[in-house]
## 1
Amino acid sequence: MGFGDLKSVSGLKVLNEYLADRSYIEGYVPSQADIAVFEALGSPPSADLYHALRWFNHIRSYESTKTSLPGIKKALSNYGPANVEDSTPAAQDDDDDDIDLFGSDEEEESEESKKMKEARLAQYEAKKSKKPALIAKSCILLDVKPWDDETDMSKLEECVRTVVMDGLVWGSSKLVAVGYGIKKLQIQCVVEDDKVGTDHLEEAITAFEDLVQSVDVAAFNKV
């Protein structure tokens, strides 16, 4: 019995044909027979050998429970078509499991490896703690409208710039005509989002009620 040489194209074709009408190497449930052949195979069959590839991917899903599958793992010569002699290199039949093709995560890390990981983690945390926190800021363009064309716009701007808040920086400004000889003050500012809200800003400016009729947010952009 056997599949020929599972490391050769001919052996893989025998396996593919064998699995054409079978879900497993033996019986109707995954067993140690599947694990024995899987480990001898070593790598996935090519896409054109779709029966073997389907079986390979299915057995690989039993990574964490392979030792609990039923049956006893035997030599490859105990599996496969009766008219085919097994010729897979003997090294592949070694049951010592020196190489785990499932990539088990249960192997213990060496003490040196653990110490290296801990040291790198400590370095990362120290570097991260020194990195300045990113401060969220916004650029706001305000329209400050006077009561009429007789309002002293220079005085109005002067009053606006007297508004001082932690996280507020005033920028450039200009006067924009709105009609009937009336001009509004357009003024920019940059604020720290966690410290200055637009509601508080508008409230502080409209407090100059003799000069300011209203305040509108003309533009709001994250910096």
## 2
Amino acid sequence: MSRFESTDPCTGAVLWQGAAGDVAAAVAAARQALPGWATSRLADRVAVARAFQAIVTARADAFARLIASETGKPLWETRTEVASVAAKVDISITAQAERAGMRSGEVGGVRQVLRHKPHGVLAVLGPYNFPAHLPNGHIVPALLAGNTVVFKPSELTPAVADFMADCWAAAGLPAGVLNIVQGGGDTGRDLAAADIDGLLFTGSAHVGAALARQFADTPGRILALEMGGNNPLIIWDLADAALDAAAALIVQSAYLSAGQRCTCARRLIVRDGAHAPLLDRVTALLDRIIVGAPFDDPQPFMGPVIANRAADGLVAGADTLVARGARTLRPLTRRDPGLPFLLPALYDVTGVSGLPDAELFGPVLQLTRVADWDAAIAAANATRFGLSAGLIGGDAALYDRLWTASRAGVVNWNRPTNGAASNAPFGGIGLSGNHRPSAYYAADYAAWPVASLEADSPDATITTGLGA
């Protein structure tokens, strides 16, 4: 059985060591636990979820510090992640009642009832950028619906997954209802091919497309894909008094979490000739951004990207932009050759042909200058992805034009592209998702509806079409 380890990206220190998990054993445990959990009372499942919420809140500081150590994200940011893990419980309970609860009525004098059933054993594949919050967004709704779960976290963040599983165990979740199986890509492929009833995925478009192909021959299994984005942010008709705020929104959109959010702005679209004052403010902010380790004082705005391999890939991607003709406004600089700290980068790609429609999952923003609004919309939609989009400036009528024309599941106005409400659906189209949005709508894919017409006793006659 192969062994692997996770390390602190800021220091290289080993944080976790262990062996790849046994997929068959984990799925078998989930299958064995399913009947008892699926037939338990919803109130009992809710009670366990609330106990988990209380334990996460009580252990919040240790939880946040572990996430910071394993991902390199600043402590201020990982504290918000832990808060989101706890808040997800209340949101999921409400969503379960609203979107997957029991409904009854009457049609033509006959009782009509809608109920929901769990799928069974669900696999969850989690990412490294939000190693607790994002898989938790699948796990809580799945458990509330009565499913059992096999969770494979990113091989880069196994310690966070173990911590979260321990919180569930302390909350009284029965053995076998949630099973952690550690491992890399091979383990994930084995899990996707195992005796499961569905898979809930958060990660790259490349892996999501491979899962879609793998599931093509088994339409009876649910597959929910939450993938990345090549997200546009349009700046238009901006008043001079709003330039500073717009610059702050751009920086937040592009560089939060060192650009490692699927909703980060990747492409900045501005009116040619009106861009210089705005860019002056954006570059001034970039030059002030503190890049550092999670526990530094003062706190950094950005930590490192997750690993040296990720940093190498981002540098190669930025080099490709320059080789094809992009003009460097701020280079993607590696602060330390041995560690994955990157300084925020900005490239003007106006007029550059053959740009890859790819998600550079890091602190890289590409600027495109356009002549008019139609060209801005065309540039925004020139992608196979469709996760988030935004407008800064303009008025309500202009925003309505963006909303109507855009191809994205999250569309914001005068807010960062990576701002999303947990009590709303979250997801995209194209290479960003398969029309199964998560967050509040996770209740939809965690259970399946059963419609019934019911009567307390049989009552029927045939009045037409019978011979004497």
## 3
Amino acid sequence: MIDTDKRHMAHALVLGKRGLGQTWPNPSVGCVIVKDGRIVGRGRTALGGRPHSEVVALAQAGEAARGATAYVTLEPCSHTGKTPPCAQALIDAGVARVVAAISDSDPRVSGQGFDMLRDAGIEVTTNVLAEEAYYDNAGFFLKVEHGRPWVTLKLASSFDGRIATASGESRWITGPEARRVVHAERARHDAVMVGAGTARADDPDLTVRGMGEVPQPVRIVVSRLIDIPLMSRLAGTARDVPVWICHGPDAAREICEAWEGLGARLIRCDLNGRQIDPRSLLQELGEIGLTRVFCEGGGALAASLLGADLVDELLCFNAGIAIGAEGQPNIGALGLGRLAEAPRFHLRDVRQVGDDILHRWTRN
């Protein structure tokens, strides 16, 4: 039974992963319904967060759900919001057993979904592939418990840690295979974020390309004074794909109005000295509902997030090229006096991507 539960839960986790970046402010949950050893229904949280995975899977299963086992990557919700509770939907469908990976820390649900199921006579098994399930929806839990989204910081550099030559030339340090992985990561996050320097130097699109028809992430620029060209690609496409500009309280009113006129959303953040306070930045994004943010630099923004201990995952690409000390570093000054003060991460994965090396790190 244990191996069978893990196998079906692994299937549900795959379904949930497919919705990452597409369901905020809700988590991306997978559900598989099994009867007599055969899958009769499966689903994941739909675009925008509704309907929930259980409802999708139950609709597919129909009458076959009666007496079946439902495998869900997160505790079924127990409260009535915009839709009825999923725990009640499972009860009404006559499911005999529910296997869940983890409980929901949302106080409206936490433990109550399981209680509803047990009170209805349904057998409940929990903590099946819990670590994997928590990692997939860590951003949702961070938003619920700490009010901020999960931050993945992407660094792509030469093997001596440079992101550009002294003159600013940076295209392309890594190869096309690495860039495709970056587009896939953008698609798995709610938003892509850069600093004003990167927006000015690269004039980026920050969209997902080469992946077919997929929902586009929100594009965020962090710029205290909104010193971003009004003729940039971001400005020209703000009505097509959302652009949010996180600025300081001292940004000029006429600049704010100009960007709003182009279709951008303006988000005012507190300052920490002369820079936008990274904690205020992420709290504002969490308040809006973001759960996963993919930060692509530049160096000053990376240093700000690292210095405040707000980077949850590092995605580092190293190319087989040397630029030298005169090149631009991938992380700005951290002001460290001792090695013990340096942020440390745990190595999660290493693999070759084309001619580049990708290593993934998470916080200790």
## 4
Amino acid sequence: MTAAMLPNLHVILPELILAVGVLGLILLGAFQGERSAPLVGGATLVLLVAAGIAVAMQPGERTVAFNGAFVVDNFSRFMKILALVGAVGALILASDDFKRRRLTAFEYPVLVTLSTLGMLVMISANDLISLYIGLELQSLAIYVICAFDRDNTRSTEAGLKYFVLGALSSGMLLYGASLIYGFSGTVSFSGIATAIQGQQSTGIIFGLVFLSAGLAFKISAVPFHMWTPDVYEGAPTPVTAFLATAPKAAAMAMTIRVFVGAFPGITPQWQQIVVFIAIASMVLGSFAAIGQRNIKRLMAYSSIGHMGYALVGLAAGTAQGVNGVLIYMAIYVAMTLGTFACLLSMRRSGVLIEEVGDLAGLSRHHPVLAFLFSMLMFSLAGIPPLAGFFAKFYVFAAAIQAGLATLAVIGVVASVIGAFYYLRIVKLIYFDEPTEAYEPMPGTVKFILALSSIVTLLFFVVPAPLVGAAGAAARSLFPAG
């Protein structure tokens, strides 16, 4: 490390906390073996919280470090905190389930921390090289945790599928990045924006298409969603909860920064790409989930649809649109953590239920759980006055203001169709004949479910903190506005 880089270290303090901490935890686990698993798990939560505090304490003004490769601004602060919240929530949800299934090992929290470190780098990446480094650090750890239940064929299959398809998407992203570098002469986002200002090079457009393919894979958007249902179903449920929250937030942040930061001069070109991906994701997410019987596969298609709704805001290409995306992702993370908390509390004879039909009559035996689960389903469907309604309202309003009324109408229609499978679950819970009762809910799951339910149910009462923070984050990407 050169002396010139030392003044930049305060900019990457959250990343340093995770990097140094995880090295220490690896050594602790190596020396003490499996006995260290509870200690490593607790220390990991402390590390993630400490990184979150460091992120919150960073200055709001835009700061660029390491020769422009790394940027800290209100946008990065907002999305880093969201990714850290998702990681902490998923780790807490995993503690009881892994203990019951005898999967407790010090490697799991270490891998989650390494993946989260990659996410923080992705969110602050300000050139193509740092973007790829963060992306691969995040992905390599996730490949392993998807296959963490080594004695389960479905889990190992999920890890292998994600690895093979992830390698393909990384290759496409790298090819796109090489085209963009070749035709712009720089890897810096600001340099690319300057180089393509006022011109529309065919090479840049082709590079952008391949780059978009890699980004779409990471947020599981159509047509690069093929890994999502199988990986969601095969991976252990706490791993699925992690996949559905923190990595999605980080990948969406990376996508926004790439399009808005590197290609503002060709907004109409990338808008066409985003509009196509958004429509395809919303439509497929709405229709494909209807026939699903496995609830984790259903949540996979639900996730695909929700990424499509979020992209409606990005398609607007405005600060208001990005503001809508940030609000959407924050509410989506809260709803998803609550939904998986419900799923992790539904256990019979020590085995988690995974079939939608097993929810029949839940209200007879567990009325509170039934109410909260139904509320989360209503929110995912976008029923007012729950938080999910306002998430869709912000992105659709931004699209209409940007002249994309047709896109907003398609989103509303897809949302109405998608409400069918959410309401079907509510019907099963309240109107079908009850099945056998579930085991008592673990305390850690109750904690996550309570926090998620508060956000989902009471967002409309106090929306200002989230809306204000998202607005400041979005404006930091549009300094001229």
